[in-house]
Design a protein that fits this description.
By secondary structure, the chain is of the alpha/beta class. It contains 22 helices and 10 strands. The strands form 2 sheets. Strands 6-7-8-3-9-10 form a 6-stranded mixed beta sheet, with helices on both faces. Strands 2-1-4-5 form a 4-stranded antiparallel beta sheet, covered by helices on one side. The longest helix is centred in the middle third of the chain and has 54 residues, at 248-301.
């Protein structure tokens, strides 16, 4: 129930619809009972069982409600009969139609209002999930499968809609239908109603026993759905590799194994779920049969209950079976929805490891430089950086080089605060980056990565990620600086051309130049280039390198380089090995030393 309460808080903004739903459901339950009761005078007239009563009865108290209602009905029918038998029948027919019309009208209104509440709560839940997905640090997704996160936002949220939010419809309508129905049944026959009181808790107990282990079964199904969505996401992302290495069979078998497990888990879950309905229906038929036997004795043998009243009683008894079964299934659905809610709330309640300090400042200007002081960092157990220190003065370009795994890209992740340092400090203009808001920190930074991360949008839309209100003229100017306008202007729709999923309609060099143009459009004082040319051919590298040089003019730049030919003009070159600085200096100075940097240059020149 704790998960149920947490999910229900999303219904609070839509409480006016909840009140309108409650009112409509109250009238629905009332007119549903009156619709059945209104059949009684019709049957009395048809069976000619109406007692002639010319004197209007007097109310004597709540204990005589049944007798008063019967006598008043007889009096009313007698008055109508005096006007003609046909008038009585017409009036009774109109009464029955009116009751059923009002019942269905309020039933529709109840569903109409609950629709706004359910869909509104669902919208807000999805919005919060997406916001939390973006707010969580990069480190969170290095440990989680993306497909599992997608499954939580899609499948699990839908499960919450079908299980938890659908119960909102039952909270008022079904209990009131039962209360009004039983009230009328008590008035008709107290003895018969005792059987109904026995059935409701018995049914609820049996159904709850059936659904006791449902949460664990549902949890397995949802986890497996997340797993096979992860396989699908990885397959679509790595389709070229899968085909290139003839690995279709490996991935097909992996996917088939997942769907087979899902098949088994789903069968167990659904079979247990399907058992609830026939069980509750069978229990209902047992009660109806018992009522028919005992009520028949009262009508035919004891003659203590009129036949027409017994028919109405049976109609009322059958009418409350449906809401009774719905309430039984509701507890079952809560157990089933608990697994989905737990997975969704796990994301919503995850505390971000990287948060703004309470007194974090908003830094808008960059005046001095970036200082990294005695920084040590590890992703898991092994240290990636140890006691790393570096000063990057304003306007200077500092290049970080070294073999793979030496910690170059880690420095970019730490400066942008995608991860927090374990030890040491990173300062901008003497202010620790932990003491400024993440938004203002990243507002000072521009980022171009090795993988050109583009979106399925137009060229204009991709660049406006950096500056939402950028004009077409600003976008074109940024494209020119990045050497990208030469191919963009030849496209059929220019900057309005859609570049496809991940920009796959473009070549590697074109995608990278668009990434550079995006950073140029942002126009930040500090630029971080994380191996921006390592994945390009020679011609594309030249164009991209020219674009990078254009972009880095009058900017402070931290360049992480794999190809050493691209950083020869850097003010300072820092050579890393196993997370520590082994050499530092300018290009020619390091070559003269004939040390690690010299060997790296020699290896690349031979390659």
């Amino acid at each position: 129930m704790d998960y149920f309460k947490k999910i229900l808080r999303y219904a609070i903004p839509y409480k006016r619809y909840a009140w309108l739903n409650i009112i409509s459901n109250a009238f629905y339950a009332l007119f549903g009972t009156l619709a059945m009761v209104s059949l009684f005078p019709m049957l009395s007239v048809l069976f000619d069982k109406t007692k002639r009563l010319e004197i209007k009865p007097q109310w004597t108290g709540i204990l005589d409600t049944k007798d008063y209602a019967t006598n008043y009905l007889n009096y009313f029918v007698t008055q109508k009969a005096n006007q003609g038998t046909e008038d009585v029948l017409i009036f009774m027919v109109v009464l029955v139609i009116t009751m059923f019309l009002l019942k269905n009208l309020f039933g529709y209104l109840a569903m109409y209002f609950i629709t706004f509440l359910r869909n509104g709560a669902l919208k807000d839940l999805r919005n919060d999930l997406y916001k939390k997905t973006i707010d969580l640090p990069v480190s969170f997704y290095s440990e989680k499968r993306k497909g599992d996160t997608i499954a939580r936002i899609t499948n699990d949220v839908l499960e919450i809609q079908y299980s938890f939010l659908s119960i909102l419809e039952l909270l008022v309508r079904e209990p009131l239908t039962i209360i009004f129905g039983i009230s009328a049944m008590l008035i008709i026959s107290f003895k018969l109603t005792i059987f109904v009181f026995i059935f409701i808790p018995l049914s609820g107990f049996i159904i709850s026993r059936i659904g006791k282990s449902l949460k664990s079964h549902s949890d397995r199904v949802q986890n497996e759905q997340g797993f096979f969505l992860s396989i699908l996401e990885e397959t679509l992302g790595g389709l070229k590799i899968i085909k290139g290495f003839n690995a279709e069979r490996i991935f097909t078998e992996k996917f088939n194994e997942s769907t087979h497990r899902l098949f088994k888990f789903s069968n167990t879950l659904l079979n247990r779920q399907n058992l609830a309905s026939p069980t509750s229906e069978f229990l209902g038929i047992v009660v109806i049969a018992t009522l028919l036997w005992y009520g028949g004795q009262m009508v035919l043998v004891e003659k203590t209950l009129p036949a027409e009243m017994f028919i109405i009683y049976m109609a009322l008894a059958y009418q409350i079976l449906t809401p009774a079964k719905a309430i039984s299934r509701a507890s079952y659905n809560i157990k089933k929805g608990n697994a989905a809610a737990e997975r969704v709330l796990e994301i919503l309640e995850t505390r971000s490891a990287i948060k703004d300090a309470p007194d974090a400042i908003i830094k808008k200007e960059f005046t001095d430089g970036v200082t990294i002081e005695n920084v040590s960092f590890k992703y898991q157990d092994e240290w990636v950086l140890r006691n790393f220190s570096l000063k990057v003065a304003k306007g200077n370009t500092v290049a970080l080089v070294g073999q793979s795994g030496s910690g170059k890209s880690t420095i970019a992740n730490l400066v942008t605060r995608f991860y927090d340092v374990n030890e040491g400090d990173i300062n901008i203009d003497g202010v620790n980056i932990k003491k400024m808001t993440q938004k203002s920190l990243r507002g000072l930074l521009g980022l171009v990565t090795q993988d050109s991360i583009l979106f399925n949008d137009t060229i204009k839309g991709n660049l406006q990620v950096a500056k939402e209100d950028a004009s077409d003229e600003e976008i074109i100017e940024a494209l020119k600086i990045a050497n990208a306008w030469e191919f963009v202007e030849t496209l059929p729709l220019g900057i309005e051309t859609n570049i496809g999923d991940s920009g796959n309609k473009l070549s590697g060099g074109q995608k990278q130049r668009l990434s550079i143009a995006r950073a140029v459009l942002k126009n930040p004082p500090i630029m971080i280039l994380d191996e921006a040319t390592s994945a390009l051919d020679t011609e594309s590298e030249r164009l991209v390198q020219d674009a990078l040089e254009n972009m880095m003019k009058n900017r402070t730049s931290i360049v992480i380089a794999h190809r050493l030919s691209t950083i020869q003009k850097a003010d300072t070159i820092v050579v890393l090995s196993k997370g520590e600085i082994v050499e530092i200096g300018k290009h020619h100075e390091l070559l003269d030393k004939k040390g690690v940097y010299y060997n790296l240059v020699e290896m690349q020149s031979l390659a």
